[in-house]
Amino acid sequence: MDDLNTFRLIERISNLLRSEERKKFAAIGLQPVHIQVLDYLSTCNRFSDTPAAVAEYLGLTKGTISQSIQVLERKDYVSKSQDSEDGRVVHLALSDEGRRLLDEIKPIDVFAQAQAIIASQTFTTIEEALSNVLIELQKANNAKSFGVCHSCINFIEVANHYQCNLTQLPLSQSDSVKICREHILADGFDPSANTSP
Asked: Per CATH, the architecture of 31-105 is what?
C-alpha cells in the first residue's frame, strides 16, 4: 500500500466534503466552523461545554471560537450561561433552533449518496475503498475528478506513445501519471489496478 497515495485520497475526499459544506452552509449564512461548533456541543457533556473546550477539541484559537459563538448566539443557535459554582466559567448549550439546524444539515447529502452506492461492495485495501469513495463523491457532487491520465477516457496509445485524445497531444511517461483537471474517469476503470500505465 502506498502511504502517500492513501494520504492524498483522504485529503481529496476531505476537500470535496469541505467544498460541499461551504456551499451548503453559505446558503444559510454560516461557515463550516459554525457547524463544527454546533456538532461538538451536541455531543459533549456538561464538563466540556465551555468555549475553551470547543477551541481545544477543534484545534482552533480561542478568538476564532469566540467569534463563531457570537455568530451562533445572534442566530439563536447557542446560548451561554454562567457556571453556578464558578462565575468565571461559561457554559454553552444548543438551542432548539440549533438542534433543528443540525438535524437538517447532517449528514452531508453527497456523502450519504456515495456511502449508499459503495456499502454493498467489499474492498481488499484501504486505498481501494478510499478510491471508490472518492469516485462516488465526485460523481454525486458533479466534481472534476483531477485523476491521472491512465485512468481517463481520453488516454490512448497511438504509434507506440501515449496521447491525450482531448488535446490530441502526446503524453510523456511523467505526464501520464500526474493529475489533470480535464480528467474524466474511464468506465470500468479499476482504481485498485496497478497505477502505472
From this structure: Orthogonal Bundle (1.10)
